[in-house]
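Usage

Read records sequentially. Each one opens with the input sequence:
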Amino acid sequence: MFKNVAQKLIERHLLSGKMVSGEEIGLKVDQTLTQDATGTMVMLELDAMGVKRVKTEISAQYVDHNLVQNDFRNADDHIFLQTSAAKYGIWFSPPGNGVSHPVHMERFGIPGKLLIGSDSHTCAAGSMGMLAIGSGGFEVALAMTGEPFYIKMPKIFGVKLTGKLPKWVSAKDVILEMLRRHNVDGGVEKIIEYYGPGLGELTAMDRHVIANMGAELGATATVFPSDHQTQVFLKQQKREKDFTEIKADAGATYDLHDEIDLSQLEPLIACPSSPGNVVPVREVAGREVFQVMIGSSANPGLRDFAIPALILKNLRIHPRISLDINPTSRQILENLTEQGHLMALIQAGARIHQAGCNGCIGMGQAPATDKISLRTVPRNFPGRSGTKEDKVYLCSPETAVASAIAGVITDPRDLEKKMGIQYPHFVEPTEILINREMVYPPPKEGTHVEVIRGPNIQPLPQMGPLKERLEGPVLLKLGDNISTDEISPAGSKVLPFRSNIPEISKFTYSGVDETFYKRAMEYQKTGSLVVAGANYGQGSSREHAALAPSYLGVRAILAKSYARIHRSNLVNFGILPLIFASEGDWKGIDQGDVLVIERILESVKSGKEIPVINQTKKKTIQMKCPLTVHEREILLAGGLINFMLSRK
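and closes with the structure output:
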């Protein structure tokens, strides 16, 4: 049988199940990635399970999200993470060393390996022939203990690339084109595999841009072959010995197919407030801009900063613009400095920030009220920037810097047409400065390590088993594409409580209804429900978006459909993820309706549809709860931690 790259990667890690679309498979995990916004939960979960030492080939903990130290909380958590990493045998990347995804690629990425991470953009590592999947933190914690990673076998979506990118168009425009065609749910339950002659000139970091934002398509993973460009990247990082060629067999087929002629692409931009709201830049050109941000895991490569620096040489940004530069790793920052690009950015008027996620996750750099911000980040969900009713657009570094010069949204091709600025020639250098010193290896033994916990770090709340009957009000009715940012917000006000569930729960759904917490607490003991539309829980993998509602007494979600990671998180924390058997029934439920669900245990065990009685409307509807055998056991136990403790 001829196999594509995704099939080869799955096959070499397959522990259970069959590679048939929709069937549950268990996979052996080689590497894990955690970051500080989710990593504290992972460490608490390892502690709750009594873990002594991780069993993966490589596990790495990064501090890249919560870098703003307004008080003791983030600083305490950084110490907690470092001491926990030492105890459990995990590599540690400290604050300021960079965003997890590019740093992991620089230091630990190896073609053919399976990486799962408690960050939805873990899929970025698929750029170098890895199978890399974002997941909830608890599943990552289990993988660290040697447990298989369970997932439904995805369909393989092949995308053939032909042609060559024209001037002023780059890798960000490729993934924006995919979002323009397929929207934010077009990759759900799919692995997207890119192949074809167009790959030849896309560097490993170009591929990172595309693979990273596969998360915005809802894809399980994005896969590229490991080829000459992968070898070039590993040689540049002084790790050429880690190279292995992995390509699709001639004659390999795909479940779904699309094709992009790179030569026909033009500069694209995602308008507020969805990564799928993509139009050509020329259609929105001329709109007044106040902030431009370059950096983040979505555009992390040296060229993503060097190209703007070369364009800006001997120029100044528009006086109205704040041009924020977020280097993605300390190594990138060192090379920008040595090559003179940092000086060009500074002299042009840019503001240089520390290496990290920063404004991408709402940690500072919030835009002004009702003012446009152009960003090379992966997401522009409502309020994610830290400003309510924000106007965030997603674009390439070329479009970003052109707009910073002009002061309005600008098609970068106009720099050449109207200002005579030539598209700069940049070739990725073969020799660069390498910084290995700032990722700290764990000690050989962890028994002597004292884990230091600050006062804000609280143990996981206890959860009981699933109940046979649920009666409660619909506290909230939501529409389609609700993101985890809207369920459990990020930002400098909220994220410092990520290791304190009672406190972070106070912000649950605050972006859509500030009264939710107070109303939910009235039903914390008896239980309540939330109704949602399609693709519920898209975006970040943060399990707080399931754990906080569970703590507040939300016992079931009734939705049209779910994003993959969030649905798993709901199961892992004992929330019943129901799906409307008929989408039309969604219209018949209003906020405040009292619903009754009976024979829950029987229905979950049998897999049959579950009747839901709307006492307010005097009507009964049918809900589905499709679960794998593994998920059924977890849910019946009341969540993953109860399930794991029951096995001891």
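Summary fields computed downstream for this record:
- The longest helix spans residues 72-88.
- The chain is about 30% helix and 20% strand.
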